[in-house]
Every structure is written in structure tokens, then in C-alpha cells.
Specification:
By secondary structure, this protein is of the alpha/beta class. The protein is built from 14 helices and twelve strands. It folds into two domains: about 240 residues, 3-Layer(aba) Sandwich (Aspartate Aminotransferase, domain 2), CATH 3.40.640.10; about 130 residues, Alpha-Beta Complex (Aspartate Aminotransferase, domain 1), CATH 3.90.1150. The strands form two sheets. The chain has a seven-stranded mixed β-sheet, with helices on both faces. Strands 8-9-12-11-10 form a five-stranded mixed β-sheet.
């Protein structure tokens, strides 16, 4: 083994030089046991393995890989991305303040609204894509926790993580970044000063649309981090061992998948940007994107798989375009090997998020870009 720090592609492909001690296998074994035996003196056969709600070897390996990839000190797996967000939010006590970015994944917004109302936690929302507005809100509100998402879903905007971290720390707050759309292959929020980074591991970390999972990674093992670990272990929001094994399997090809999907997405975005049936394309890889320069700094590995675009006309026109697609799948989610498209207004119309009826959100997969572009081209033909 080399002493030189390994790059993410090598860490994930080899699972950090993993070898099964019992067999020498290069693939981690799946141990489905929920409980672990003790000897006659009631000592554990393996002191690390007590009960799978607290973790097992396959969980710890995945958490170690994520810690390495993000440059943190510790990581925790959860049963879903929302379970990770909930564990983070529940660390803010009654009377505290959470500063939340507007225009992010609607599930996060809805959960935070409901939680803060029940627990008498003050929830302040801000357009964090406006750096001055975010700085002013942090200074005036002095929150306990700042939760941001970059790139944001579905508006595909970027937040300056370093600036946000500096402002948060100046008032004693901690900063958490939802980096689901970026992944540690493209961006490492902890390196820009964030205290926590979270992922819906269901998406690009696994990449095969067959695992529901979440992850939190900490820059330091703080009092809040200890509370998050206790919350997961006691509340039971642990990922199952088979799902953790599948997550590890998916992560082995993550670097290749992200590279291909990012290249495909840039090609698709350029095609859409020049089409007369498309009013606006939101993708940070385009020079026309308002945060393109920030993306080049904050996402040096590429611009990701996720974009949204507005169809000229009205909501019926957008639905018609989605309905004519033959290769790209009409489905929710993102980050899988398959390209999927979603009419966001259908999902969010009753939530007051302001998503226009003309918006389509597209997660680009690893297919051949020419096939994706051809499918979009025929779908954009106006109905006679």
C-alpha cells in the first residue's frame, strides 16, 4: 500500500484496499445478523459488534469510505436522506433558530416547517443564492444551525459555501450542506468550511435506483455530532445491512458514473440551450448560468447530472414534451444510471414552492448522449 494519499477514484474502486480477513475476498461479505454472540463471561466475541441498530462491519466500511471521500472525521449512515436531515434538525432545541435556504428539495422544507412548528423552533428562510441576503440573515438572526443545498433542487443554483461558513461561524452557528446533487466526486463542502455534509445516498452515491439511504459526514466530532449519533442509534433510523452492502457496491463505480453523467449533462444542456422551444436552461456548466464561475471553483470535478429547463408555452406544453419522450424515463429521483425527467409543478403545486408549470427537471444518466439528445429533439417538436 502506498503512503501517498489516494484519489477518490481509487478509494471507491478498491474500497480503500478492503480485504475480507476470513477469506481474503476483495468484496465485503454480507452479514445479515441483527445480533452478535457473547462468550461464557458475557464478553462479546467482537467488541465492535453488539446489535445492528448501532452498526455492523458493512455499515462501518461504508461510513469509513464516505469519511475519506469528504475529508471529514466521522460519518453515519441512515435509512434515508430525510432521516439524516431529521436527525440533524432534531439537535436544535426548543427556542432555537434554524436558517433554511429557500427553493431546495421540497421534502426538506416541509419536514422543517412541521418540525419547527411542533417544537417551537424558529424557522427563518432566505434566498441563499443571493450571497448578500444570506450574510445579512445570518448576522441578524444568529441561528443555531444553517442548512443549505448546493446545487439546489430543482432551481440548480449554487451557494458560496466558504462565505456561508465564515458568516455562520462568526455568530456561533454551524453550517450543514446538502451536497446530494454534487457528490464528493465533484465537491467537498467540508474543505470550504462546512461543519456537516449530507447526502441522499439513494441518489448518485448508490447510483442504481435500488437503495433508500442517507449519510451525514462531520468535519469534527462535536456535541451536536454526539447527539446525532445517539438519535440515530436510539430512534432506529439505521440502514439495513443489505442496503449498506448495495450502497458500497454502487460506490465502487461512482467516479466513472459521475464523470459520464456530467459529460452527458453538459452536452444535453448545450443542446437545450440552443433550442427555440426551450425558454431557459438551469445548469451550472453553461457559461450563461449566473453561478458558473462559482461552480468552476466549488465543483472542480465537474457540474453534475442534474438540470432543469423551462418549455416555451404553458404547463400543458411542458407535460406534452415529457409525454413524448421515449428513451428518457418519466420518474421521480435523480443520480441513477438511467436518465429520468419530472414535471416538478405536478409534485409541488400544493406546497407553495413557486415551481413554474413550464419547468421540467432532468437527471442525466450514463446512456449515450446522442440518444438522449435525439429523444429530447423529437419530444420538443410542437404538436400539430
Amino acid at each position: 500500500m502506498t503512503d501517498r494519499p489516494l484519489r477518490p477514484e481509487t478509494i471507491t474502486a478498491q474500497l480503500d484496499h478492503y480485504l475480507d480477513e476470513a477469506t481474503g475476498g476483495v468484496v465485503p461479505p454480507l452479514q445479515p445478523s441483527t445480533t452478535f454472540a457473547r462468550d461464557e463471561a458475557y464478553a462479546l466475541h467482537n467488541p465492535d459488534n453488539t446489535y445492528s441498530r448501532y452498526g455492523a462491519p458493512v455499515h462501518r466500511l461504508a461510513e469509513d469510505i464516505l469519511t475519506r471521500l469528504e475529508g471529514g472525521t466521522d460519518a453515519l449512515l441512515f435509512s434515508s436522506g430525510m432521516a439524516a436531515i431529521a436527525a440533524l434538525g432534531r439537535t436544535v432545541r426548543t427556542g432555537g433558530t434554524i436558517l433554511l435556504q429557500e427553493g431546495i428539495y421540497h421534502g426538506t422544507t416541509v419536514w422543517m416547517r412541521n418540525f419547527c412548528e411542533r417544537r417551537a423552533v424558529r424557522l427563518v428562510t432566505v434566498d441563499a443564492l443571493d450571497g448578500d441576503a444570506l450574510s445579512a440573515a445570518i448576522r441578524s438572526e444568529k441561528p443555531d444551525l444553517v442548512l443549505l443545498e448546493t446545487p439546489s433542487n430543482p432551481w440548480i443554483g449554487l451557494v458560496d459555501i466558504k462565505r456561508a461558513a465564515d458568516e455562520a461561524h462568526a455568530v456561533g452557528a454551524e453550517l450543514a450542506i446538502d451536497s446530494t446533487a454534487a457528490t464528493p466526486i465533484l465537491s467537498r463542502p467540508l474543505s470550504f468550511g462546512a461543519d456537516y455534509v449530507l447526502h441522499s445516498a439513494t441518489k448518485s452515491l448508490n447510483g442504481h435506483s435500488d437503495v433508500l439511504a442517507g449519510a451525514l459526514i462531520a468535519a469534527r466530532e462535536t456535541e451536536r455530532w454526539a447527539a446525532i449519533r445517539a438519535d440515530r442509534n436510539l430512534a432506529g433510523a439505521m440502514l439495513g445491512p443489505f442496503e449498506a452492502w448495495l450502497l458500497l457496491r454502487g460506490m465502487r463505480t461512482m467516479a466513472l458514473r459521475i464523470e459520464r453523467a456530467s459529460a452527458n449533462a453538459l452536452a444535453v444542456a448545450r443542446f437545450l440551450d440552443g433550442h427555440d422551444r426551450v425558454a431557459l436552461v438551469r445548469y451550472p456548466g453553461l457559461q450563461s448560468h449566473p453561478h458558473h464561475s462559482l461552480a468552476r471553483t466549488q465543483m472542480p470535478g465537474g457540474f453534475g447530472c442534474l438540470m432543469s429547463f423551462d418549455i416555451t408555452g404553458d404547463g400543458a406544453d411542458a407535460l406534452a414534451v415529457a409525454g413524448r419522450l421515449k428513451t428518457i424515463i418519466r420518474a421521480t429521483s435523480l443520480g441513477g444510471v438511467e436518465s429520468v425527467i419530472e414535471h416538478r409543478h405536478t409534485i409541488e403545486k400544493d406546497l407553495g414552492t413557486g415551481v413554474p408549470e413550464t419547468m421540467l427537471r432532468l437527471s442525466v444518466g450514463i446512456e449515450h448522449s446522442d440518444d438522449l439528445i435525439a429523444d429530447l429533439e423529437q419530444a420538443l417538436i410542437p404538436t400539430e
